[in-house]
Amino acid sequence: MNLPDILWWYLENTLEYLLQMLPCMAISLVIFSLMRPWRGKRLARLGLSSGPAREGALLLFLMFSAGLAALTVFPAYFWTRGHWLEVMNGRQPLFPPVDVQVQLQTLQLEPFQEIFRAFRGPWVMFLMLANIGIFVPIGFFPALLWRGWRWWKSLLLGLGSSLTIEFIQFFIGRNTDIDDVTLNTAGAMLGYWLFCLSRTLFPRLISRFQCRPEGGDKNGLPV
What is the spatial distance between Cα 79 and Cα 166, in angstroms, rounded to a whole number? Predict the structure, then answer.
């Protein structure tokens, strides 16, 4: 495959995964909308307000997190149209049975094996890049939305989330790989670095994504 074909193939796979994220993202949108009045009252009791920029970023992060869950803590291709058609026609169960012996045989706990293998083929390279990229928001959005966020919090959030996902995947018939944890955590740290860069370049813009005292100060900056 030449470079344009590889890039087009990457795009097609990315769009396929995005489509699988949509059902859970839609559910999270409904939950966010239902909880917004309660959140508004809670912030008012604390003397704080959350502006449109912060609400939009918070919604985007919630929807992304739900989409990430759709891709990682359900069986492979669970949210595809083909899977649901097979289920409704009675040709396969909603949750396929899991063979623990097979899972133990495919358990990959040797570091860097998949990372090194990524340079031998476009599919494994795609998975490696995806494992990094999909965790960038995990490091970026919390730092953007909550004051006092530190690098080690992004590290722990990325590491803890990835370990939880890999643990669940063992019991749903997905591959459990230590390299995924390494790549996911690296992605979270990359997200935090991007936040730090954005804060340095656009400090006033970044301030709009955090809670402010009710009414805000004269400069519209948070306290």
Answer: 19
CA angle 216, 208, 155 (to 5 degrees): 125
Q: Are 47 and 214 in contact (CB under 8 A)?
A: yes
152-200 tens-digit pLDDT: 999 999 999 999 999 999 999 999 999 999 999 999 999 999 999 999 9
Distance (Å, whole) CA 137 – CA 157? 11
Please give the Cα distance from 91 to 192 (Å, whole number).
Answer: 45
Alpha-carbon torsion (190, 134, 35, 203), positive or negative:
positive
Beta-carbon contacts of 9 under 8 Å, excluding residues fewer than 6 positions away, are 1, 122
Q: Token match 């990372």: residue?
A: 115
pLDDT < 70: residue spans in the chain: 1, 215-223
Q: What is the pTM of this model?
A: 0.90
Determine contact, residues 79/20, Cβ cutoff 8 Å. yes
The distance from CA 186 to its chain's CA centroid, rounded to whole angstroms, is: 13
**Distance between CA atoms of residues 81 and 23, nearest Å:** 11
Q: How far apart are CA 69 and CA 169, in angstroms?
A: 11
Burial class (CB in 10 A: 0-12, 13-18, 19+), 196: middle
